[in-house]
Design a protein that fits this description.
Oligomer: single chain
Distance between the termini: 27 Å
Strand content: under 5%
Shape: elongated
Number of domains: 1
Mean pLDDT: 95
Helix content: over 70%
Order of helices and strands: HHHH
Structural class: mainly alpha
Length: 124
């Protein structure tokens, strides 16, 4: 994928997550428990942090090839992690919480690849 396509996707994800945050604050408050609202907000929070991380990598990388697995892990992890939490709240199906750790593992894997890339980097 090109920087342009990554930026388009990141922009869309950022917009969706801001809308999700607003929906949680204004649309869900009266319809779900405080615990479920906290679950929703966890999805928004982790999602936005990773949108910012994606943006930082795409904007600062000279070439995306070195970072492609970081970007892929974070993107898929964000979708699985936040998406499963949003689905859990909207559908009120607690079993969806079992899917969330798979997204978390992808997010962590992306961060470990950042660490690996830093170890292998010749930049000082």
């Amino acid at each position: 994928m090109t920087k342009r396509s990554w930026l388009q996707g990141i922009g869309l994800l950022g917009a969706v997550l801001v809308a999700a945050g607003a929906f949680g604050a204004h649309g869900l408050r009266e319809h779900v428990t405080a615990d479920r609202l906290n679950t929703w907000n966890t999805g928004v929070r982790y999602g936005m942090w990773h949108v910012l991380a994606l943006l930082a990598v795409v904007l600062s990388a000279k070439e995306l090839i070195t970072w492609r697995w970081v970007l892929r892990c974070w993107l898929l992890g964000l979708i699985v992690f936040a998406g499963s939490l949003f689905a859990l709240v909207i559908l009120d199906k607690g079993w969806l919480g079992a899917v969330t750790p798979a997204g978390g593992i992808l997010l962590i894997t992306g961060w470990l690849i950042v660490f690996r890339n830093a170890l292998l980097s010749e930049d000082t």
